């Protein structure tokens, strides 16, 4: 996965050992590694990632309009936090809304940098992130959202010359947001070109999509692609089948183009964890999810794994052990079985943001809940790591859940698989 060699990783880990104090439970140790929980050898490669979200300035930058020096300092601090928590990968959101955190020839600079979409921030965040992550022995995965254009529905608020303004037939409003229409072939080609530009320019270790394909359903609203379906949907039994084919094409073509552009770059997706409920499809999971990715987001995640179109999958299993509708303890084995024999790596997406949130149930008020997740997942041979949502909580660690994970499961830093 990328260009972080084991030797290079260990050298960088040694250089960074002084980042945390010896008394910090998350400090990088200087001694021999202790046995790891779950039966995995302490120094075995595994994915230990955190999502670094930029949409609405969730994790970074802390607010728009900071100086370039302030933005850079905050970014470096996020990478240092990952090292101090003994993580080895950062999934950095660089295209949250048809924009860019690098000097893209296709789309404008993100408004989350300067407060004004299209305004040059005076530095290259993605280029800096790659260099500084690798210096610290961290893999850097560039995280893209393919179709979200804006968190509002007014195209006139987009930067002058924005592709969505130049091509109004490419976009649709839905649920208070603006989206590129996945059914338009020119849209699929364009968003691929925009993303591949970053793969071509930077020595990234991975390309990462999250769970947003067709938008999550909004009660009482319809995604208005009837005319698009009438134009392009002949030969499909239903609009749903046509929509799934649109997303399948995006994933398959993106996989091919990544490999053609830069060898060694992994392609991964972090879907909502319920593909289908078993009550809908006997191949589905023992869940009662209100959302099913196959039916509601038109994202056939099972096929992507079975066909090997992706290199890794990170299902967002954002529920506690024992949660009735979607039990962590039932979803992990379902995904373990799915990936077996496919060559696709399985990492589990963890809801660190729920730990200590007063709006969550009793299990999430227990600092040990997340550590129990890793213990349980460690019993399944196909699980090769975890990714935590998200960077803000990795650092703040409201009730010590992340520190407990580190103390119980991460005795030393290890390379990515």
Automatic annotation (TrEMBL):
The keyword Signal applies. Residues 46-359 form the Glycosyl hydrolase-like domain. It holds the Pfam family GHL10. Residues 1-22 form the signal peptide. Keywords: Signal. Gene3D superfamilies: Glycosidases. InterPro entries: Divisome_Glycosyl_Hydrolase, GH, GHL10, TAT_signal. The keyword Magnesium does not apply. This is Glycosyl hydrolase-like 10 domain-containing protein.
């Amino acid at each position: 996965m990328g260009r972080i060699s084991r030797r290079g990783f260990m050298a960088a880990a040694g250089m960074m050992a002084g980042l945390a104090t010896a008394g910090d439970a998350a400090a990088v140790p200087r001694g021999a590694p202790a046995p790891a929980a779950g039966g995995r050898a302490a120094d075995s490669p595994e994915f230990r990632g955190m999502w670094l979200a930029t949409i609405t300035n969730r994790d970074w930058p802390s607010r728009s309009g900071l100086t370039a020096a302030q933005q850079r300092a905050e970014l470096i601090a996020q990478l240092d936090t990952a090292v101090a928590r003994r993580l080895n990968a950062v999934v950095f959101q660089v295209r949250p809304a048809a924009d860019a955190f690098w000097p893209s020839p296709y789309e404008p600079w993100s408004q989350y940098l300067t407060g004004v979409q299209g305004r040059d921030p005076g530095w290259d965040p993605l280029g800096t992130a790659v260099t500084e992550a690798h210096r610290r022995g961290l893999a850097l995965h560039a995280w893209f959202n393919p179709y979200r254009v804006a968190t509002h529905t007014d195209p006139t608020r987009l930067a002058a010359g924005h592709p969505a303004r130049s091509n109004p037939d490419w976009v649709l409003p839905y649920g208070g947001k603006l989206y590129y229409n996945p059914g338009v072939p020119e849209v699929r080609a364009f968003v691929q070109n925009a993303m591949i530009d970053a793969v071509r320019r930077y020595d990234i270790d991975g390309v990462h999509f999250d769970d947003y394909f067709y938008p999550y359903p909004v009660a009482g609203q319809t995604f208005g692609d009837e005319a698009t379906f009438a134009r392009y949907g002949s030969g499909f039994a239903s609009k749903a089948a046509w929509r799934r084919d649109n997303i399948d094409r995006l994933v398959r073509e993106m996989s091919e183009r990544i490999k053609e552009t830069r060898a060694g770059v992994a392609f991964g997706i972090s879907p909502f964890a319920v593909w289908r409920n078993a009550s809908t499809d006997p191949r589905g999971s023992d869940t009662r999810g209100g959302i099913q990715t196959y039916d509601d987001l038109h994202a056939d995640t099972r096929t992507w794994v079975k066909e090997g179109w992706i290199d890794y999958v990170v299902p967002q299993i954002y529920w506690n052990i024992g949660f009735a509708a979607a039990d962590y303890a039932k979803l992990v084995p379902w995904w373990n079985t799915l990936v077996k024999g496919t060559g696709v790596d399985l990492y589990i997406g963890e809801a660190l943001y729920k730990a200590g949130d007063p709006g969550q149930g009793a299990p999430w008020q227990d600092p040990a809940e997340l550590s129990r997740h890793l213990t349980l997942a460690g019993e399944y041979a196909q699980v090769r790591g975890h990714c935590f949502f998200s960077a803000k909580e990795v650092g703040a660690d409201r009730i010590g859940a992340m520190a407990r994970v580190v103390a119980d499961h991460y005795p030393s830093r290890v390379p990515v698989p």
